[in-house]
Amino acid sequence: MSLQHWLGPIKDSGWQMYELSERLYPICRSITGDGVRETLKILQEYMPLEIEEIPSGTKVFDWTVPKEWNVREAWVKDAAGRKIIDFAKHNLHLLNYSIPIHQKMSLADLRPHLHSLPDQPTLIPYRTSYYQENWGFCLTHQQYEKLEEGTYEVFIDSSLTEGHLTFGTLLIPGKTEEEILLSTHICHPSLANDNLSGISILTQLAQFIQQGDRHYSYRFLFLPGTIGAISWLALHQDHLARIKGGWVTALLGDDGAFTYKRSRRGDTEIDRITEYVLATTGHAHQVIDFIPYGYDERQFCSPGINLAMGNLGRTPFGQFPEYHTSADNMDFIRPENLQQSFQLFCQMVAVLEGNRTYQNLAPYCEPQLGKRGLYSAIGGDNDRKERQMAMLWLLNLSDGQNSLLEIAQRSGLSFALLAEMADVLMEHQLLDLYPSSI
Question: Distance between CA atoms of 161 and 226, rounded to whole angstroms?
């Protein structure tokens, strides 16, 4: 697969990703249950995703796979029998993982089970109670303040049963079994940026990577947050040595600048590639060091696992007012932002795929390029000097110690140009791949 393939993805893919997000938006997802299965079944229409399930009660490191949760109906009625909170109208209205209940109670007894946002009175918050049995409802603070004294009827038709934790995996084989891992969480209901943006971008990237030959193998994981990554890692410990590194993806559809959180190791090839591409594409961005809090990079980068996994998103979690509220809807993300995020991943994969280490086959002084016809074969007047310099940098630094990325960073020349000229020099038997880079 040529470098140009990776650098030229389809231009209307932003709308394709937006439409997929729109299709998935109404589904009530959680860390287990039918909503996750429905989501993964839809993703199977876009790629040959394999669905795996782990039984409830399975020990995974220090955790245990929880019971499976499903919900059919949930509401609160006032004394007049009117539904004042209804899960059918917005699935954020229900505390995720609420246990079943059907009971009449006073407002004083109901209030401890209600969640609102006084500082954002028009928004419904997103709340969960995965590992502690509880029930509750979320509503706008405007609704909360209008509640009157009286008797309320509470009904939650849900189930917590011995079932399964479900996730999707896709392996796209390359020339080598060494794998690049791309992971995103699929457990959030009706939240567009967090994380339908990550799901739709990885779906598009998986389709794109399948279109041609590649050096690395690529493994995609669509997992419930935290427990999904822990479960996958626990069941695939013997597989981890194959993983070169990769990215955890989330929060990629908003208008904010890109944010890259380095891997725990901090200076891996994945870290250097991400920072290089962010810097050379000119996108507004920030790079932060690893912290053991956030998304599933904290599982992949735990000390016993220690994979080279960074996290790439836009505005960090908790730092935009729409975070974990009903305002994180389809109006909050934009097709052009999804497209830009997708193309950034394509550019990072391009550098990753092309980042080889070379050795100079004529290392004793500068080889005579003119007699090989190279000066006349390296472009027109506008770019001839730059191409000549690219050849000279490649010949000088190709000693088996410097990768193409390192040459690009030191020379200030573009990675794409250096990759192109490396191919030219190989055709003229002046360069060859260093054995460890084959």
Answer: 20
Q: What is the pTM of this model?
A: 0.94
Per-residue pLDDT tens over the stretch 117-167? 999 999 999 999 999 999 999 999 999 999 999 999 999 999 999 999 999
pLDDT band at 369; cut points 50, 70, 90: confident
C-alpha torsion sign, points 11, 12, 18, 21: negative
In angstroms and rounded to an integer, the radius of gyration of the C-alpha atoms of the chain is 26
Within 8 A by CB and 6+ apart from 82, the residues are none
How far apart (Å, rounded) are the C-alpha atoms in residues 38 and 401?
49
DSSP bridge partners of 245: 180
Q: Which amino acid is at 163?
A: G
Torsion sign (Cα): 302, 303, 305, 309: positive
pLDDT at 380 exceeding the cut of 70? no
Q: What one-character-per-residue DSSP string does 250-301 give? A: ---SSSSPEEEEPPSSSSSHHHHHHHHHHHHHT--EEEE---S-SSTHHHHT
Residue 305 vs residues 60, 65, 270: alpha-carbon distances, Å: 14, 19, 16
Helices 34-43 and 197-209, axial angle in degrees (round to 10): 30
Q: Stretch 8-23: mean pLDDT, rounded?
A: 85
10 pLDDT more than 60? no
Cα angle vertex 311, ends 41, 43, to 5°?
10
Q: Where are the beta strands (DSSP E) in 78-225?
A: 83-86, 101-106, 114-115, 137-138, 151-161, 164-172, 179-185, 217-223
Residue 1 has pLDDT above 50, yes or no: no
Q: Are 300 and 264 in contact (CB under 8 A)?
A: no
The answer to whether residue 5 scores a pLDDT higher than 90 is: no
Q: Residue 198 has which token pair?
A: 């990550």
Amino acid at 112: P
Distance CA 113, CA 381 (A): 73
With beta carbons less than 8 A apart as the criterion, state whether 408 and 373 touch.
Answer: no
Cα maximum dimension of the chain:
95
What is the DSSP secondary-structure string of 381-402?
Answer: TTTHHHHHHHHHHHHHHTEEEE
Cβ–Cβ < 8 Å for 71, 94: yes
Among residues 13, 11, 4, which one has the least CA distance to residue 353?
4
Per-residue model confidence (pLDDT) at position 379: 56
Please write the tens of the pLDDT for every residue from 199-225. 999 999 999 999 988 999 999 999 999
Give the whole-angstrom CA distance, residue 374 versus residue 378: 6
**Residues sharing a CB contact under 8 Å with residue 266, sequence separation 6 or more, in sequence order:** 289, 290
